[in-house]
From TrEMBL:
It is found in: Membrane; Parasitophorous vacuole. One of its GO terms (cellular component) is membrane. SUPFAM superfamilies: Cysteine proteinases. This is Serine repeat antigen 5. PANTHER family: CYSTEINE PROTEASE FAMILY C1-RELATED. The keyword Glycoprotein applies. Its main location: membrane. It comes from Plasmodium falciparum. Residues 201-452 form the Peptidase C1A papain C-terminal domain.
Length: 560
């Protein structure tokens, strides 16, 4: 009772009331989450009907939508708006029952092979409730290509390999770069890249190693704001820190956004480039943690904050290095970019550059064209075989790579790409794209890759040296070996070492299987390739379904 408050100080009473209010808000949020989960379950049941095989897996048609489903769809979007923090439903018009149904049906068609838990997560993307769903990505990009010129001294120094003749020097710079010229200069010893079980020359997916620093950097959502340049830049620096032995700590995107020198009112709408990110570091010499200054898209455009005493500086003792003037690259201070178009005649060189940087620095920044290519329904688990464009409007990160078998039975390679559109998009925020793309493409999907040239001291306090015993025995059992079992289990009693039969089997499997390469160096293993079903080849850790604990007892009367 309030009478008790008179025996307490005003500060204690104020704190108590604040805690009480927060607890009540948490209870309300939990209840909304509970009702949203219930609504999603109801919709998934109602959107399918029993087919002629007595299997309830056929989507209903628009004319079969009944009144109960219409009510549930509107209830679902109302609840989703209450919990959504990305600004989607605050900035764009919500659709009617038919719009929402069509958006959900389109999503389900594109993800027909997903399990039920994955589909439930995808239903939490607020884009499905929009009247004009294609508006969703309008303010979710934000890359402005920097104006840089090629160094003519290097540009005219055209390097060719056995496939090209000296006469090709007139190829206007699209010539072949010798694979080793841009790679051997990298000081690989300055990075902790000893995890060749999860990242080597053939296969790299550190997300599968739950103990790896990089796998603990959760996917983020830039919200309804053109800030992809910030999220791609900060993640690249975060993985560099991981490779230097630091703990996984997210950089404050809001600090960078609000210390950007553009007009305050335009910061959420105009976009910029990773060069601006480096300039902000250079000007302020400070990068706080996300926990110090959390991101919210509605706060983008506020004043650059005053650094508080308890804030952590993630750029402590860091230095931005001068440009390297690498052949066929665009350079600025701390910034090296490679345009795929310049490697048109030797994409293998472009691929090798990216692989080397990912192995050493954990990621690279990639420029892509997202408009009219990537939408809310984009599938992240299957490998996308896409063309690119002569320009780019969105910044993402390449974080790994692997091999797969396409529908023609050919072994191909893919990039693992991290986006900043939240965990309910793609494959928990990631997607795969073929390294080379269709043969008819004029441009590769990866328009450019960017690498930061920065000097961060190694953090030897947390760098762990692996025991020599792991040269012979596995520290963990990654998916490579897990899937090797399933490959041979599925092919039945065929001879394990029959290459001919394996090839025939791969052709039958088409694009249902993915190959994971294993480097032989330091692993003590044979380096054979293995196939795996797409369902077990997600780009992040095994889906740990988040089970929300709701105050069911408190609200049990609601269900009566």
């Amino acid at each position: 009772p309030d009478v008790c408050y008179k025996y307490l100080s005003e500060d204690i009473v104020s704190k108590f009331k604040e805690i009480k209010a927060e607890t009540e808000d948490d209870d309300e949020d939990d209840y909304t989450e509970y009702k949203l989960t219930e609504s999603i379950d109801n919709i998934l049941v109602k959107m399918f009907k029993t087919n002629e095989n007595n299997d309830k897996s056929e989507l209903i048609k628009l004319e079969e939508v009944d009144d109960s489903l219409k009510l549930e769809l509107m209830n679902y979007c109302s609840l989703l708006k209450d919990v959504d923090t990305t600004g989607t439903l605050d900035n764009y018009g919500m659709g009617n029952e038919m719009d929402i149904f069509n958006n959900l049906k389109r999503l389900l068609i594109y993800h027909s092979e997903e399990n039920i838990n994955t589909l439930k997560n995808k239903f939490r993307n607020a884009a499905v409730c929009l009247k004009n769903v294609d508006d969703w990505i309008v303010n979710k990009r934000g890359l402005v290509l920097p104006e840089l010129n090629y160094d003519l001294e290097y540009f005219n120094e055209y390097l060719y390999n056995d496939k090209n003749s000296p006469e090709d020097k007139d190829n206007k710079g699209k010539g072949v770069v010798h694979v080793d010229t841009t790679l051997e200069k990298e000081d690989t010893l300055s990075y902790d890249n000893s995890d060749n079980m999860f990242c080597n020359k053939e296969y790299c997916n550190r997300l599968k190693d739950e103990n790896n620093c990089i796998s603990n950097l959760q996917v983020e959502d830039q919200g309804n704001c053109d800030t992809s340049w910030i999220f791609a830049s900060k993640y690249h620096l975060e993985t560099i820190r991981c490779m230097k032995g630091y703990e996984p700590t997210k950089i404050s995107a809001l600090y960078v956004a609000n210390c950007y020198k553009g007009e305050h009112k335009d910061r959420c709408d105009e976009g910029s480039s990773p060069m601006e990110f480096l300039q902000i570091i250079e000007d302020y010499g400070f990068l706080p943690a996300e926990s110090n200054y959390p991101y919210n898209y509605v706060k983008v455009g506020e004043q650059c904050p005053k650094v508080e005493d308890h804030w952590m500086n993630l750029w402590d003792n860091g230095k931005i290095l001068h440009n390297k003037n690498e052949p066929n690259s665009l350079d600025g201070k701390g910034y090296t970019a490679y345009e795929s178009e310049r490697f048109h005649d030797n994409m293998d060189a472009f691929v090798k550059i990216i692989k080397t940087e990912v192995m050493n620095k954990g990621s690279v920044i990639a420029y892509i064209k997202a408009e009219n290519v990537m939408g809310y329904e984009f599938s992240g688990k299957k490998v996308q075989n896409l063309c690119g464009d002569d320009t780019a409007d969105h910044a993402v990160n390449i974080v790994g790579y692997g091999n797969y078998v396409n529908s023609e039975g050919e072994k191909k390679s893919y990039w693992i790409v991290r986006n900043s559109w939240g965990p309910y998009w793609g494959d928990e925020g990631y997607f795969k794209v073929d390294m080379y793309g269709p043969t008819h493409c004029h441009f590769n999907f990866i328009h450019s890759v960017v690498i930061f040239n920065v000097d961060l001291p190694m953090n030897n306090k947390t760098t762990k040296k692996e025991s020599k015993i792991y040269d012979y025995y596995l520290k963990a059992s990654p998916e490579f070996y897990h899937n090797l079992y399933f490959k041979n289990f599925n092919v039945g009693k065929k001879n394990l070492f029959s290459e001919k039969e394996d090839n025939e089997n791969n052709k039958k499997l088409g694009n249902n299987y993915i190959i994971f390469g294993q480097d032989t160096a330091g692993s003590g293993q044979s380096g054979k390739e293995s196939n795996t079903a797409l369902e077990s080849a997600g780009t992040s850790n095994e889906v740990s379904q988040r089970v929300h604990v709701y105050h069911i007892l408190k609200h049990i009367m609601d269900g009566k």
